[in-house]
Specification:
Layout lengths: L1 H16 L10 E4 L2 E2 L13 E2 L2 E4 L5 H8 L18 H14 L6 E4 L17 E4 L11 H8 L16 H4 L17 H6 L25 E7 L11 E4 L16 E3 L8 E2 L3 E3 L2
Parallel strand pairs: 7-10
Antiparallel strand pairs: 1-4, 2-3, 4-11, 5-6, 7-8, 8-9
């Protein structure tokens, strides 16, 4: 009888733990690597090949941020709203602190004592020196290529213009639909303000082919990369992707490249986390 019970318990354990290398961590989606399939991507047709990785199913929420950082900087308050008004530096600190909290190895080495002399942005008064631990299992920001690959549906891409649809309103919040009424005409800040526009609860729109939400709209998302890497402006701003509740519809296209100084903050600026595949 005891042997039978032990055998049953062993089988339950085996089934629950088999294939763990391909099982997504909680709240993350496994992304199979490869070349870009979506022809709308700015990387399409290039030799860029993405390795397997995990990415957040949703943008980091205010509840998740507060649990790690102990405070909430967001302008629009709500546990299930995306955290916003966070700088690139705060985003990488969040990644490291969340890694610590969950017993993972920090992905970033952050030197706050010296100035990064390669950072040429005159408006950035922080300029920490940040390097990476390539093989660490901790949380990190996606690279621009990883972000765009995932937003475009990865190997499951259906070649949508936006992340998960050819119709912007199905998958994203932007200046026209982020308020009480659907706006028309040209982009207008007075109209946006009068419309009580704001961020929306994460996951409120349709997901893309990989089950990822809000990669078009809601808040712009920090990537690790410098903007314009390889040219004279390579060390002035960090890449942002995805557009936000205040942005135009063109910003919702995964191929759109935004930029912001690393210490910049805005009520449409948030993040999505990544991890290396095991």
């Amino acid at each position: 009888m005891k042997k039978s019970l032990l055998l049953v318990l062993f089988l339950i354990f085996f089934i629950q733990n088999s294939g763990c290398s391909s099982k997504s961590p909680e709240e993350l989606v496994f992304v199979q690597g490869g070349n870009f399939v979506n022809s709308h991507s700015s990387f399409y047709g290039e030799t860029t090949e993405i390795e397997d990785f995990y990415i957040g199913k949703q943008e980091v929420t205010q509840k998740e941020w507060s649990a790690v950082m102990g405070q909430n900087p967001s302008e629009f308050k709500g546990d299930n709203l995306p955290v916003e008004t966070v700088s690139w530096y705060e985003a990488i600190e969040y990644c490291n602190k969340r890694s610590d909290k969950e017993g993972k190895k920090q992905y970033y080495n952050i030197n706050k004592e010296q100035i990064d002399t390669n950072n040429t942005n005159e408006f950035d008064d922080v300029k920490w020196i940040v390097t990476i631990n390539q093989d660490a299992d901790g949380y990190r920001l996606p690279t621009e290529a990883e972000w765009e690959y995932a937003a475009g549906g990865g190997q499951q891409s259906k070649n949508y213009l936006y992340s998960g649809s050819g119709i912007a309103e199905e998958v994203g919040w932007y200046w026209r639909n982020s308020g009480k009424d659907l706006l028309s005409g040209d982009w207008s800040w007075p109209a946006i303000s009068a419309n009580n526009s704001s961020t929306k609860a994460v996951g409120s729109c349709k997901p893309n082919e990989l089950g990822l939400y809000d990669m078009s709209g809601n808040v712009r998302e920090w990537c690790f990369d410098w903007y314009g890497e390889g040219d004279a402006n390579s060390s002035s701003s960090r890449v942002t992707k995805g557009g936000g509740w205040i942005g135009d519809v063109s910003c919702l296209e995964p191929s759109f490249r935004g930029k912001f100084e690393a210490n910049g903050k805005g009520s449409d600026q948030g993040l999505r986390i990544c991890r290396n595949a095991e």
